[in-house]
């Protein structure tokens, strides 16, 4: 029981991080029907910005986080502008290939610029364990930070999407881009804004992962990126609460597989989940079926 | 004897009834029209016949058999179709478009393809000959090696019909064959359709908005509105049917001359 | 008919000349071992790129799992020669067949999906295959199999590449291959023409997987060691780059770009990251400025080059 709860808390921490990344995938997919393969690498850039901000600029947690969000946001918007926008009316496959290209560019460019070595993240929060119910539940202050920051971000996102004008534009474009355009929505600006928010959230995930696992490297975005994508599909791609739930579920499943089975199978299990979902209910847990018009 | 009978077919798309108790009988060798306002369910009827949609209730019997829910099986049974929004293989040559449709009658196996055995060479030759003969009928033979997407609109429509015929069907379904054509092209199309019915000895069901074409061409007409068949009869009967006039023009102007002037639908 | 036989003979003489010249250069050591390794690699990459092009370019089913099929061919063939001590030709065949069977098993469920969903699913299957090898002690787990006998040489690679290219080309030029291309162009229309799309997608996928398996088998018997890590999805991206650069739907394009990118690979062997940066820029630039790749769906042909070939000979009817 104790290990189970321990793994559950680990899974929820990891899952919150997946959820933050998954939100970016799901928003971009919702608005452009594109799997942004480079999203995991934007998360990596966020983690590195946070690392440099706290190690060399000696900034505190919140300023480092904000700087990481800003850098990733600019990167995300630039990528969309340069690499995806010219292809928006071309086949989906050509944007997908471009996205794979951008992803490889960030990873390998990262290796060249930052060296492939693993960096140790500074201990922004000295680890401290809190114990409840006679030690049945133990939780670290880092995990608490992850939960608190994730919740703030998710609530913030909901407010943006449902309470602001740009949020309304995002919902309009994701329902029907052509109709939205006719109604006077600036589609280009809305897409840019979506990339901005998604990338900033990925940066938050990057900084949190740095704090949680203490180590970062230029290829760190590949696997979490794929898993967050799986989380988005699991919840129903394009659906924001789906990405949150999917992310948490993925984290928990993965922690339980590592805890009880073999960690070597961990990645295999994630992909098995993806395949099962796509084959049985491709629209995900929260999705509705849509019929193709002939 | 009837080649196709649709019996009490209804279909439901998540609560929306697209077809309600539709009954259609097609005699062998007949040329039948299916008309009705936009959204009446005409294309849905085609999609049911070809097996793209499965009816919620009712049966479709073709040549004594239930139609399959797999479109490719129905093509093998002898049902071919064209599409409302032309669906050619755009980046392939006109000849290849027709040869692809000939595939269900292919005379060589996969293994002879791999080694380009004599069977393959002979089979390809006869496919080419058949395809070119078909293209000649539609006056498209001079474009055989052009890409389908480079044909003018009217010729694309004709190629789609030629391609459908290459499957050697017993029943040909034409979905708005005259859409987007000028009167001259429509006139030629009318002649072509009559010609292929006689030449290929097949049964034709066509959806069309162009009333003059339907009235001129079809011996038998079904009229649909809101997912139901509201009238069935000869062109003359349909012209006088008050329900049809109401469906097209609204209740207050039951003037038969106006129904003839409707072109292109809403 | 006579014309066809004459053409075939000419092609064969041409191929034999290429084979012979390089064989002489290799055996007289004018081209040393370093060249041999890279020339062999070019051949393997041609097999991989052309077979992936059948799936992605001709049939239009975007797969990112080619490295998975390659690994199945590599591992099973290594088991045949290294573990069981059987012959190399048998190993090639078994490698290809097992990859082909995997292609059927993976293709049937996943080919119902389209576009990017199919891409990510095949990527997932490729990774699952890798995880399975990673956890199988019999094939060495993470450290892989080492000590695989070196049977792959110029002769094997050249003729296997020729066979792959010829068979896939013949397939594409047949009624069966045209069905696959029809599916790429418009799946609904293809189905209405009597084409069982699931069957033909799976067929193309299986043929592609079979040759990827052969490529993997040749790879395993060239490099002494194979590890699961060699066949991760980055390898699939490598092959994809060749196909995209050459042109989705052009066999000669795939051949040329496989040769070119293997050359880049050889030059930048010690700078893996730089090589990948170049690959990634190629992908982006090709997509932005020439999405159809170098060759588009066209084929390079000597006949057209010399303009003496009778273009219409294949089409003359009546």
UniProtKB/TrEMBL annotation, chain A:
CDD domains attached to this UniProt entry: TM_PBP1_LivH_like
Main location: membrane
Stored Pfam families: BPD_transp_2
Superkingdom classification of source: Bacteria
Keywords, comma-separated and alphabetical: Amino-acid transport, Cell inner membrane, Cell membrane, Membrane, Transmembrane, Transmembrane helix, Transport
InterPro entries cross-referenced by the UniProt entry: ABC_BtuC-like (IPR037294), ABC_transp_permease (IPR001851), BCAA_transport_permease (IPR052157)
Segments traversing the membrane: 12-30, 65-83, 95-115, 135-161, 191-213, 228-257, 269-287
Membrane-topology descriptor: Multi-pass membrane protein
Localization annotation: Cell membrane
Family the entry assigns: Belongs to the binding-protein-dependent transport system permease family. LivHM subfamily.
Name of the protein described by the UniProt record: Branched-chain amino acid transport system permease protein
Species the sequence originates in: Thermoanaerobacterium butyriciformans
UniProtKB/TrEMBL annotation, chain B:
Protein's name in the database: Branched-chain amino acid transport system ATP-binding protein
Species name: Thermoanaerobacterium butyriciformans
Domain ABC transporter: 4-251
Regions that span the bilayer: none
Entries under InterPro entries matching the protein: AAA+_ATPase (IPR003593), ABC_AA/LPS_Transport (IPR051120), ABC_transporter-like_ATP-bd (IPR003439), BCA_ABC_TP_C (IPR032823), P-loop_NTPase (IPR027417)
Any GO molecular function: ATP binding
PROSITE patterns reported for this sequence: ABC_TRANSPORTER_2
Keyword vocabulary terms for this entry: ATP-binding, Nucleotide-binding, Transport
Superkingdom: Bacteria
From TrEMBL, chain C:
Localization: Cell membrane
Record's bilayer topology term: Multi-pass membrane protein
Residue spans crossing the bilayer: 9-31, 37-55, 62-82, 88-108, 115-134, 154-172, 199-219, 239-265, 272-289
One Pfam family hit: BPD_transp_2
Entry keywords, A to Z: Cell membrane, Membrane, Transmembrane, Transmembrane helix
Location (main, coarse): membrane
Presence of keyword Metal-binding: no
Protein name: Branched-chain amino acid transport system permease protein
Organism this protein belongs to: Thermoanaerobacterium butyriciformans
């Amino acid at each position: 029981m104790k290990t189970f709860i321990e793994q559950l808390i680990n899974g929820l921490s990891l899952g919150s991080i997946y959820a933050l990344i998954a939100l970016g995938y799901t928003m971009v997919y919702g608005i452009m029907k594109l799997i942004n393969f480079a999203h995991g690498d934007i998360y990596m850039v966020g983690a590195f910005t946070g690392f440099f901000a706290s190690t060399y600029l000696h900034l505190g947690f919140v300023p480092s986080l904000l700087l990481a969000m800003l850098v990733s946001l600019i990167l995300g918007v630039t990528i969309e502008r340069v690499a995806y926008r010219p292809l928006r009316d071309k086949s989906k496959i050509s944007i997908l290939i471009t996205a794979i290209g951008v992803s490889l560019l960030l990873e390998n460019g990262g290796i060249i610029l930052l060296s492939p070595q693993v960096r140790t993240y500074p201990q922004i929060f000295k680890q401290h364990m809190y114990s409840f119910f006679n030690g049945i539940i133990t939780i670290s202050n880092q995990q608490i930070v992850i939960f608190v920051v994730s919740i703030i971000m998710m609530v913030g996102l909901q407010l943006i999407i449902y309470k602001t004008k740009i949020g309304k534009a995002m919902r309009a474009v994701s329902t029907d881009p052509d109709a939205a355009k006719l109604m006077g929505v600036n589609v280009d600006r809305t897409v840019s804004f979506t990339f901005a928010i998604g990338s900033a959230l990925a940066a938050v995930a990057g900084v949190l992962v740095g704090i949680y696992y203490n180590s970062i490297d230029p290829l760190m975005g590949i696997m979490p990126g794929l898993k967050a994508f799986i989380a988005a599909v699991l919840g129903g791609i394009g659906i924001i609460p789906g990405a949150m739930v999917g992310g948490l579920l993925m984290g928990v499943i993965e922690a339980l597989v590592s805890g009880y089975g073999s960690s070597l199978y961990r990645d295999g299990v994630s992909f098995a989940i993806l395949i099962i979902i796509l084959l049985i209910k491709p629209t995900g847990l929260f999705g509705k079926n849509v019929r193709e018009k002939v | 004897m009837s080649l196709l009978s649709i019996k009490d077919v209804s279909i439901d798309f998540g609560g929306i009834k697209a077809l309600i108790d539709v009954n259609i009988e097609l005699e062998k060798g007949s040329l039948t029209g299916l008309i009705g306002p936009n959204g009446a369910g005409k294309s849905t009827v085609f999609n049911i016949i070809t097996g793209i949609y499965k009816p919620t209730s009712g049966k479709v019997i073709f040549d004594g058999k239930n139609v399959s829910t797999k479109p490719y099986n129905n093509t093998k049974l002898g049902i071919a179709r064209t599409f409302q929004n032309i669906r050619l293989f755009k980046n392939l040559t006109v000849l290849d478009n027709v040869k692809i449709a000939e595939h269900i009658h292919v005379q060589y196996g996969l293994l002879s393809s791999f080694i380009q055995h004599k069977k393959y060479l002979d089979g390809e030759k006869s496919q080419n000959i058949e395809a070119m003969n078909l293209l000649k009928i539609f006056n498209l033979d001079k474009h055989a090696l052009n890409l389908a997407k480079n044909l003018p609109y009217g010729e694309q429509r004709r190629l789609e019909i030629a391609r459908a015929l290459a499957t050697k069907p017993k029943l040909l379904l034409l979905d708005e064959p005259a859409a987007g054509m000028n009167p001259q092209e429509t006139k030629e199309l009318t002649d072509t359709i009559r010609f292929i019915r006689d030449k290929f000895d097949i049964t034709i069901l066509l959806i069309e908005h162009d009333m003059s074409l339907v009235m001129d061409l079809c011996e038998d007409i079904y009229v649909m509105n809101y997912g139901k068949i509201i009238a069935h009869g000869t062109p003359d009967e349909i012209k006088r049917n008050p329900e049809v006039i109401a469906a097209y023009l609204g209740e207050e102007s039951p003037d038969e001359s106006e129904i003839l002037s409707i072109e292109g639908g809403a | 008919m006579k014309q066809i036989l004459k053409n075939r003979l000419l092609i064969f003489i041409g191929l034999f000349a290429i084979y012979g010249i390089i064989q002489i250069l290799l055996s007289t050591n004018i081209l040393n071992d370093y060249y041999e390794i890279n020339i062999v690699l070019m051949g393997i990459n041609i097999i991989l790129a052309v077979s992936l092009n059948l799936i992605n370019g001709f049939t239009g089913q975007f797969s990112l799992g080619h490295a998975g099929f390659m690994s199945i061919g590599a591992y099973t063939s290594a088991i045949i020669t290294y573990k069981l001590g059987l012959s190399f030709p048998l190993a090639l065949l078994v490698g290809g067949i097992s990859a082909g069977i995997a292609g059927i098993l993976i293709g049937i469920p996943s080919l119902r999906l389209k576009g990017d969903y199919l891409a990510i699913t095949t990527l997932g299957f490729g990774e699952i295959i890798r995880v399975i090898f990673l956890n199988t002690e019999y094939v060495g787990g993470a450290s892989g199999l080492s000590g695989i006998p070196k049977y792959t040489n110029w002769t094997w690679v050249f003729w296997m590449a020729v066979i792959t290219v010829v068979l896939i080309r013949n397939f594409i030029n047949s009624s069966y291959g045209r069905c696959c291309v029809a599916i790429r162009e418009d799946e609904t229309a293809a189905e209405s023409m009597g084409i069982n799309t699931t069957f033909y997608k799976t067929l193309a996928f299986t043929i592609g997987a079979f040759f990827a398996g052969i490529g993997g088998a040749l790879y395993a018997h060239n490099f002494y060691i194979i590890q699961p890590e060699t066949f991760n999805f980055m390898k699939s991206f490598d092959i994809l780059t060749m196909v995209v650069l050459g042109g989705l739907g052009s066999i000669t394009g795939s051949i040329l770009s496989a040769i070119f990118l293997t050359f880049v690979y050889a030059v930048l062997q010690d700078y893996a990251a730089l090589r990948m940066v170049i690959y990634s820029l190629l992908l982006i630039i090709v997509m932005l400025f020439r999405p159809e790749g170098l060759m588009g769906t066209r084929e390079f042909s000597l006949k057209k080059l010399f303009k003496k070939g009778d273009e219409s000979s294949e089409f003359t009817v009546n």
